[in-house]
Amino acid sequence: MRTQVGIVGAGPAGLLLSHLLHRQGIESIIVENRSRDHIEARIRAGVMEHWVAELVDEIGMGARMRQEGLVHEGIEISFSGRRRRIDLKALTGGKSIVVYGQQEFVKDFVAARLAAGTPIHFEVGGVSVHDVEGDGPAIRFSDRDGAPQRIECDFIAGCDGFHGICRPAVPDLKIFERTYPFAWLGILAEAAPSSDELIYSSHDNGFALHSMRSPKLTRLYLQVAPDEDIARWPDDRVWEELQTRLTQDGDWRLNEGKVLQKGITPMRSFVCETMRHGMLFLAGDAAHIVPPTGAKGMNLAAADVLVLSRALAEFYASGATVALDAYPATCLARIWKAQRFSWWMTSMLHIFPDQDTFGRRIQLAEIDFITGNEAGARALAENYVGLPFDA
Ligand code: RFL
Ligand code: PHB
Question: To test the ligand 1 pocket, which listed residue (298, 299, 346, 387) has its Cβ within 8 A of the most ligand atoms?
């Protein structure tokens, strides 16, 4: 097989990249080691930054997102027995976020890529990348029937997530990393959201988050120990703890319902420098991980591939490599800003095992300060809805 850009991974990064390239007349082929059913059912991110939702509209993919996605103009921060609203729209000159499940985004883009004739090879095995230093890189894999295959291409986009094979193919990487002494236990429940907005709660028992997927589905998270055994969290205990951490004023109670999914996610900050080796470009979770408290992971993946698609378009239009050469630096500037915000939100809202009472009071004073003055709230809001694309 031969194509212009070989893409490893059909997550948000790989699918969006393929779509953006197609609109510039650039061909791609995607290889994905899981099944279509699996990637379309995987429950993950939920928050799309303002510019990402606008981009999805601009590239003709916004129909279902606009129908089923939920526009949020504010978020709430709960602490010390009260809640404060961050008015995203008022503080950012009219911007908001869209709550739309990552798996819905993936479904929309898989359908569009296949309809446009872009090959997506699902359930492939033994994927490896070759000759990335030269002009003729290749991706090798075995297809669903076990037959060996080879894609020859001009460029390879490593969009294969944190555990993929592309990052290890880049020599001499510098890794910057932090693991946190906690994880998130997340549930998806058949219950109407208990509030119109997301609620980030810093409680003495630990952090909790109220989010949603639709008017009938609630997504909820609890801070738990990093090595927590999920068997210790039967549904009753999860609900009881969510009620404790999220119910901070009087008669408000969380709606409960059937738990449809339950899982534990470790928390990590991770950046690799650089994001390119020869003709191999890393994008999305393959190059960086943020803790989910800032809701930035999927949005950063979208930012990387937008930069990459523009650089590739410039190359194919004129032969110029300026934007391709600048790709790591352009992306890393944004990545470090998102890392800072995600680390800060995580540090401000979670309980650390070694924290003393003084540390906790300082944390509560910080939340009070940030949410209680306009400059602080604006800094939070501007980062949350997504920094301007070129900032
Ligand atoms: P993905 O989504 O991991 O996709 C990578 C794809 O590559 C495939 N793959 C391979 N394919 C071929 N060969 C191989 N050797 C391969 N190895 C892997 C995988 O099967 C997969 O299909 O990475 P991508 O595209 O970079 O997208 C990144 C996002 O998925 C991720 O950042 C977000 O989900 C993070 N995240 C959130 N981000 C947000 O922007 N807003 C949120 O609200 C948010 N909440 C979250 C999150 C992540 C979570 N978890 C479970 C990690 C909440 C949670 C709980
Ligand atoms: C989600 O809805 O899954 C979600 C929302 C906000 C976050 C993280 C996850 O910060």
Answer: 298
Tell which atom from ligand 2 comes closest to the C-alpha of 186: 3
145-197 tens-digit pLDDT: 999 999 999 999 999 999 999 999 999 999 999 999 999 999 999 999 999 99
Query: Hey, what are 350's tokens?
Result: 């979670």
Helices 322-349 and 374-385 cross at an angle (nearest 10°) of 130
Indicate the burial class of 26 (C-beta count within 10 angstroms; 0-12, 13-18, 19 or more): buried
**Active-site amino acid positions:** 72, 200, 292, 296, 384
Give the Å distances, CA to CA, from 138 to 16, 132, 150, 160, 259. 21, 7, 7, 16, 44
- Give the nearest ligand 2 atom to 45 CA: 3
CA-CA distance, 219 to 236, in Å (whole number)?
A: 16
Ligand 1 centroid from CA 162, angstroms? 8
User: Is the distance from CB of 279 to CB of 321 less than 8 angstroms?
Assistant: no
pLDDT in tens, 69-120: 999 999 999 999 999 999 999 999 999 999 999 999 999 999 999 999 999 9
Ligand 2 center–CA 139 separation, angstroms? 34
